[in-house]
Design a protein that fits this description.
This protein has one domain. It has nine helices and no strands. Helix 1 crosses helix 6, helix 1 packs across helix 8 and helix 4 runs antiparallel to helix 6. It is flat and about 50 Å long. The two termini are 30 Å apart.
């Protein structure tokens, strides 16, 4: 399940915040980052504490560097959106870790703890959302598409 996170996270952030200055590439990175925990074997990025700590690190390390902060905030925002999209908030021992003990609960991550057909449907929904987003944000226009690729930003005219 990669398309689901890579497409839905920036689309949701764009539709909620409507900010042309967010780096949507970093939102995508933040949304995909918890999937790396499959390799590492630690589920900290699926916890509220992990996302809050990452947000605090960005805020503290970018004091007096507003433009860098604005760009880097996309990573913890993407991480928060990932937690919404994968349903980690439905597993109290994982989401609220370590409030209920130091065990993360079941060893499988929420993304891989659902039937295969559900995962495939979510990926298909992600593809459909990608098609919708290309039309919604006018990414057929080479200039708007290039801006998104080079800067991570959407054109201001498509966010109104």
């Amino acid at each position: 399940m990669l398309i689901w996170f890579l497409v839905l996270a920036p689309v949701l952030v764009a539709e909620v915040f409507r900010s042309p200055m967010i780096d949507y590439r970093l939102v995508m990175f933040g949304a995909a980052l918890p999937l790396a925990e499959v390799v590492v074997g630690v589920n900290v990025l699926h916890t509220l504490l992990g996302a809050v700590v990452l947000m605090a690190v960005v805020m503290l390390t970018t004091q007096h560097r507003r433009l860098l902060r604005r760009r880097l905030l996309g990573v913890p925002i993407g991480l928060f959106v990932h937690q919404v999209l994968d349903g980690s908030w439905t597993r109290a021992e994982l989401f609220w870790w370590p409030a209920f003990g130091f065990d993360f609960g079941p060893s499988t991550l929420p993304e891989f703890d659902r039937p295969l057909v559900v995962g495939l449907l979510l990926e298909a929904l992600g593809l459909a959302t990608a098609v919708w987003a290309c039309r919604r944000y006018d990414l057929a226009d080479p200039a708007k598409r290039q801006r998104l690729i080079q800067t991570g930003q959407l054109d201001r005219s498509v966010l109104s």
